[in-house]
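Kindly inspect this today.
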Amino acid sequence: MSVPPRNSDPKNILDTRRTFFVTTKIHMGRRLLQSDRNATLLVDVLRSSVAAKRFELHDFVIMPDHLHLLLTLSADITLEKAMQFIKGGFSFRLKRELGYSGEVWQRGFSDHRVDDPRSFDNHRRYIALNPVRAGIVSAPEDFPWLFANLVAQKSANATRGLLGG
């Protein structure tokens, strides 16, 4: 009797890290995230969670009425808990620091498990093109609330600081 072929990569069998593409929406489709003040606060909440090692954040786009994330979780955190850190953290700070009194997020979120490099790249492309498809900008590099653009801006600011400009 022959041994059946294995489809899974042996080095991934015991890997407990999981990557997800997640979408969450603002309550009633309001454009709460279109202001720089609110989008900046959300970026700060995301940075705080990453700094606390709650998850690894690969990519995101903050749209006026929703958020797309590409993140990896370790075995000790559920996707629900990670989203609670993000949504709850933002809601709490928005209310406490900026005096917002309404509902912030729609209940729940949608997610898609990312199992291979092709899916990962497809979701990254989707995130980058989201503001273009929405008609907000003509090219991804023109949208300020895209992870790649925030990283590039931070790098440029650091370089200017080193050069004294």
Remarks:
- The two ends are 72 Å apart (CA to CA).
- The beta strands are 18-25, 56-62, 66-73, 110-114.
- The chain has a mean pLDDT of 90.
- Helices lie at 36-51, 79-98, 117-133, 147-163.
